Amino acid sequence: MPKSIQQWEKQFLENASLVFEEAVPVKKYKEQVNEKDKQIEDLQKALGKATIERDWILKKVKSLGSINFTSNTNKEHKKYPYLLKEKGDVNKPNAVWASDITYIKLKNGFVYLCAIIDWNTRTILSHKLSNSIDAKLIVETLNDAISVYGKPDVFNVDQDFQYIRIQKVGLTIT
Predict the structure, then answer these.
(1) Alpha helix (H) residue ranges in the chain
(2) 78-94: per-residue pLDDT in tens?
């Protein structure tokens, strides 16, 4: 055989194995695809678990019936007009305060959080926790805020029974 053919044959045989080996970019691509498949599988499992948990919670809430822990309106109590429509933009501090109560579930029951916020500055002026939801919680929270900031022009609150006693404080309630 001529030398050039021998060299060609030698080079051909040395490089023939490359035909059967995967190229490095192909290996990396397959690894990335496998990694993404694993991520998708993990996300699908998490989504399935979250869906099951959501469905369980919805059924649990439905089984409890319509329980409202903070809003208990008494039809006999005075209804206050919504004065903020007339007030327009609240552009100065201490003009309008708002308050609400929420509950926080604990291991052995609930605690109730009452907070008062200034609408203009979005500052929490006062807050208190209590193990019972009553007017005392609101009055104490309100008195703390008034002692530091003075009285607001308007006090925007829910029309729940807990807020009825605050009319004695002498605020314009809406």
Answers:
(1) 3-20, 24-64, 84-87, 135-149
(2) 666 666 666 666 788 88
Neighbours of 98 (CB within 10 A): 18
Distance CA 103, CA 132 (A): 10
Length of the chain: 174
**11: which residues sit within 8 A by CB, 6+ positions away?**
none
Angle in degrees, CA 59, 64, 69, rounded to 5: 125
Note the pLDDT tens digit of each residue in 94-151. 888 888 888 888 888 888 898 999 988 889 999 999 888 777 888 889 889 999 999 8
Q: What are phi and psi of 116, to 5 degrees?
A: -120, 130
Q: What are phi and psi of 23, to 5 degrees?
A: -70, 155
Is this structure's pTM higher than 0.85?
no
In this structure, what token pair is assigned to residue 100? 């609400």
Is 117 in a helix, a strand, or coil?
strand
